[in-house]
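Q: what sequence does this backbone want?
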C-alpha cells in the first residue's frame, strides 16, 4: 500500500509536465540567426473543401524580414506593384500558444487583422511556420514559412 503513495506523486508530476501545445515553449525565436525571412507560402479563402493557393496562383506574394533589434519590414508584391511598410515586433504568449505581434507606425493596407489598429498578430506554429489570424474575421488564411 505504501508503494502506491510513492508512485502517485511521480505520476502526477509526469502528467503535469507534458506539453500539449504543438509548439515547444522552450523554443526562442529571438535566439535564431538574423535577419529572419518569413515568406508567404499558401493562402486560403473561406470556402470549405477548397485547397489553399500557392506560389504564383496567390493574389499576392509577401514576406516579413525580422531584424535582431526587434524591427521588421513587410513587403508585398502584386500585379499592380510593390508595397512596403515597417515597424517593431514582439513575441507574446497567449493561453493557446506563442504569437508574433507586428506593430506598424501607422495604418497600412499591408496590415491584415480583425480591427482597425495598425498591428497584426500571427501564431507561431513551430520554429519555421507562422499562421495569420486574419481568417478569424473572414480574411484570408495566410501561411508563412521561415526561409532564412
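A:
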Amino acid at each position: 500500500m505504501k508503494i502506491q503513495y510513492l508512485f502517485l506523486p511521480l505520476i502526477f508530476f509526469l502528467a503535469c509536465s507534458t506539453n500539449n501545445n504543438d509548439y515547444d515553449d522552450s523554443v526562442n525565436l529571438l535566439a535564431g540567426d538574423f535577419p529572419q525571412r518569413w515568406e508567404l507560402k499558401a493562402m486560403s479563402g473561406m470556402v470549405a473543401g477548397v485547397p489553399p493557393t500557392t506560389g504564383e496562383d496567390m493574389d499576392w506574394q509577401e514576406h516579413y524580414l525580422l531584424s535582431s533589434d526587434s524591427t521588421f519590414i513587410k513587403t508585398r508584391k502584386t500585379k499592380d506593384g510593390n508595397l512596403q511598410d515597417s515597424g517593431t515586433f514582439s513575441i507574446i504568449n497567449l493561453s493557446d500558444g506563442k504569437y508574433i505581434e507586428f506593430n506598424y507606425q501607422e495604418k497600412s493596407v499591408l496590415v491584415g487583422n480583425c480591427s482597425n489598429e495598425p498591428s497584426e498578430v500571427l501564431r507561431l506554429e513551430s520554429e519555421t511556420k507562422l499562421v495569420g489570424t486574419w481568417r478569424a474575421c473572414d480574411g484570408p488564411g495566410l501561411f508563412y514559412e521561415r526561409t532564412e
